[in-house]
Amino acid sequence: MRLKYLTLCLMGLSLSACSQHVIKTNTASTNLGQKAINSINAMYEYPSYDYRGKFNIHVEPSQQHSNAKAENAVLDTALKQKVDQYLRDQKVNLNSKQKQALYVALAQEQKSSGQTKVDKFTQIMANVLNDMQFEYDGSVHYRQKMGSFNLTARYEKPTLLVQAKIPMVVDLNNYKFYINYFALMPYLVNKDSQNNLAYLDFSKYQDMFKQVDYKKFAEYVKASGAVYYRLADQNNIQALSVSSADQAAGVVEKIRLKSSIEELILQANLYSKVNEKYFMQSVLNIKEENLEKLIANEVDAASSSKSEKTASLLDKKNSADDASVVSQELYRLVNKHFGVEDEETEYDAESEDSDQAEEDTVEAAAARAVAAAAGDSEASEYPEVSDDSDVSEDEQAGLTEEQCTALQNTPKTTYGDAQYCQSMYDIDVFGEQKAESGFLSYITKLQAVEKQFAAYDQNQFIDDQAFKALWIKHQADIAKALPPVEKRNPFIMDVGLDAQGRAVKLDYDLNYGLSELKSRFSVKADMLISNYGKATPIDQAQLKRAKSWSEASKGSMLEQAVSSFSEKLGQAGVQERSAEPYTMSLEDQLKVIAEQRYDATHAYDQTYKAVFIAKLTESTPQIVQRYSSPELQEIATVYAYWYANEEVYNPKGKALQSIEALQKKHHLENEDQFDDTLGQAVNRIVLDAMRGDTDRQAWKKLQAQYKQPQQLFAKQYQIQFEQENGASSEEKALLGQTANILGQVYVDARKNKLSEKSIQSLKIEHNEFIDYEIFKEVYQKMLTVK
Predict the structure, then answer these.
(1) Are 270 and 453 in contact (CB under 8 A)?
(2) Do 598 and 631 lie in a common domain?
(3) For 668-719, what is each residue's pLDDT tens digit?
(4) In what ranges is there compositional bias, type Acidic residues (predicted)?
C-alpha cells in the first residue's frame, strides 16, 4: 500500500528542467527566462498535443581503467617468487615454458578477478547502452484524461540488429494502463496476443485519483518547472541562433539554460521539501480516512458477483439518481456507438475456467506441501537442533563490520578472519581502503540543507517566486552543500519557441562523472512538440481489444510468471466497476446544508453552526452525547469566531462580549483547547459555500430562463465546459451540438430509457467535447431542480 502511495506522490514530481544557484539581475536574461517558462507551460494550457523524440546514453569508463585493460598482464615479482617456492616445496617440476605459461595465466586471472563488481557492471552497461538508440512518440489528451507513449529501442552491430517497439497508454478516465510488453519476447506468447495490448486495471484506486485537485496540481507543476529559471545565474540564460533544422521544426527563437546536475538535484529536492505537506494534503488530498475508504472499496469489489458485473449499470435500483453510474453507462454507449464493442462477455467463460484452474492449482500446491512435510518427518523428529541457535552462535563467533574495517589497518590478520570479512561484509582486509564516496557525501550535505528548509513546510503553497526568496536567504548553507563549480557535472537545456511562444523543441545534454562507477555517463535527448490542441487521437478500438495481463498470457511460457506478478500488483480478483445503490456521501450532504443555510442567511456564523453539529457527530459522537443542544450551539459559536478570518466574520460590541463570555464558560481560550481538524474542516465547507454563491445565483437564473430539462442541462454543460476548458469560436458550434445530445442523455436516463438511440446523432468530432467529469457535475446539479 505504501509503495503504491509513494508511486502516486512521485507522479507529481516528474518534470524535467535545470537549475543554477547564484542569483543576479539582468533584464534581458530575465525576459528570456520568462519566455522559456511560458513556452514550457504551454504544454499544460492546451487540451492536447503530440510529441516525439530520441535519446541515447553513452558510458565512458575512466581513462585510468581503460589504460589498465590495455596493458599486458604481468605477474608481480614477489608473487612469482612465492609461487616458485610453493611449487618447489610441493615438488612440482615444470620446465621453463610451462612455468611461463602458468605465470601468464595467473596474471590474467588475477587481473580478471581484480575487476570489481562495479567494473564489470560498468563494462556491461557500456556494451549495451553505447550501441543502443532510443526513440519515442505519443500524445497527451487532458480532456479525455489519456496519454500514449511508444518507446522504440534499436541495437545495431554490423552483423546484428535487434529492434523492439513497446506501445503504452494511460487511461485515467477508465483507470487502466495498457502495454504490449510482448514486444520484448513475442515468441514466448500466443500468436493472438502478440499484436494486442494487455492492461493493468487500477480502478480500485480511483478514489485516490478523484480526490486529486488537478488545478492545484497544474499550478504546482508549472511552478516547479519555473524554479530552475528563477534561480539561475542570469548569465547562464542565453539566446541562441536558430539553425535550418530548427526552422524546419517551427522554431523562431531558441533559449539555452546552462546549469549542473548537482544544482538540479538540490533545487528539486528543496522545492519539494517546502511544499511536501501542501502537495500531499492539498493537492493529492491524501488522508488516513481516504486510505481506509480505499481498503473498504477493495473488499466490496472482491465480493461483487459476476452476474452484477455483466448487468447493465442502469438496471440497479435508484441508479438513475447516481451521476457516476450514468456517466459510466454513457461512456460505454459512446464507445459502442463508434464501433468499439465491449468484449467483456466474451471473456467471462474463460475467466470462470481460470478461476477453477487457480483453485485446482492452490489445492495441488497444498497437497504437495503436506506430502513434503510428511517426507521430512524424520528430520523434524530432532527439534533440539535449532537453526536459530546456529545463527546466534555464528554471530557470536564472527566479527562485526566495524571490527573487519579495523583489520584493514592491522599488520597481521588470520586467514579465517579475512575470509569472514570478505564473505559477510564484502570487506577486503588486505585490499585498499575505499575512499569516501563523493556522491554520498553530496547527498549527506543535501540532507542537512533539507532539514533547514523543512521548517517552511506548513501546508501552504510556496511558488517559484517565494521559493527564490528562501533560496537567497540560505545562500551560505546552499554553497556549502554544493561541490566547487569546477567539479560540478554540466547540464544544458535548449528550448525552441514557435511564433506563438510555445515550446516546440527541447534539447537536453547532461554529462555526469561518477567516481564510484569509474566512468562518465553522457545523455543527449531531444523532444519535438506539435499539434497543440489537435493531437493525434488514441485508437479506442485497440484499447477495447486489450485483455488483462494474466488473460493475455494464458497458455504461454509467461503465464505463471505474469500471474504471480499480477497478484503482487493487486490484480487478483480485479473486476469491472459495478454501481451500488446511490447514497449521497456525508461530505456532499454537508455541502448542501451549507449552501442552503448560506443562501437563506448570508451569514458566516449561522452557516458554520449548521454544519458544525453534523461534523462533530461524525468525529466525536461521545461529545455530542455529553452536552445539551444549547451548549453545543454555544461551542459552535466560539468555533465560528475562532476559525473565521476577520474579513469574513468579525463580531464587535455586545456580540463579541457574548462570545468572549462563552469562551471562558467552555474553556475555549487557547488553540490547544480546540479540535483544529474539526474547526478547519467546517470552515472549509462554509467558505466553499460562500464562494459558490455567485454560481448558485446564476444557476437559479438559468433555471428560470430554461424550463425544459434538456435545454437546461445543455446550457449548463456548455457554460461549465467553456469555463474549465475554453472554446474557440469554431469549437463553440460543436460544443453546443454535443451539449444538446448530452441534455437528451440526461432526460432519457431519468426515464430509465438511456440507450444508444439517445446518442444516435453523435459524431466523431463531438467526442472531444465530452467531459465525463463535467457531465457528472451537471447531472448532479440537475437532480436538485424541483
Answers:
(1) yes
(2) yes
(3) 888 878 888 889 999 999 998 888 877 778 888 888 888 899 999 999 999 9
(4) 341-362, 378-396
Q: Answer yes or no: do 633 and 720 share one domain.
A: no
Query: Do residue 628 and residue 709 come from a single domain?
Result: no
- In eight-state DSSP terms, residue 400 is -
One domain, residues 637 and 719: no
Q: Give me the residues paired with residue 377 across strands.
A: none
Q: DSSP letter for 117, please.
A: H
The answer to whether position 622 is within a domain reads yes
CA distances from 196 to 19, 180, 188, 221 (A): 42, 7, 14, 34
Q: How many CB atoms lie within 10 A of CB 177?
A: 16
Contacts of 25 (CB under 8 A, 6+ apart): 234
Same domain membership, residue 699 and residue 681: no
Q: Closest Cα to residue 463, out of 211, 225, 232, 259? A: 225
pLDDT (tens digit, 9 = 90+) per residue, 173-223? Answer: 889 999 887 766 665 566 666 678 888 888 888 888 888 898 999 999 999
CA distances from 21 to 210, 223, 233, 380, 564 (A): 37, 17, 7, 66, 47
Coil, helix or strand at residue 135: strand
CB 774 within 8 A of CB 701: no
Please tell me whether residues 666 and 597 are part of one structural domain.
yes
Instruction: Please enumerate, as own/partner, the contacts of 610-619 that have beta carbons within 8 Å and a separation of 24 or more.
Output: 611/682, 611/685, 611/686, 612/636, 612/639, 612/640, 612/682, 614/586, 614/589, 614/590, 615/590, 615/678, 615/681, 615/682, 615/685, 616/678, 618/586, 619/675, 619/677, 619/678
Return the number of other C-beta atoms located less than 10 Å from residue 548's C-beta: 20
Question: In terms of residue numbers, what domain contains 762?
Answer: 694-782
Give which of 502, 491, 604 is closest to 265, Cα–Cα.
Answer: 491
Q: Which cell goes with 657?
A: 462580549
Whole-model pTM: value is: 0.53
What is the identity of the amino acid at 684?
Answer: R
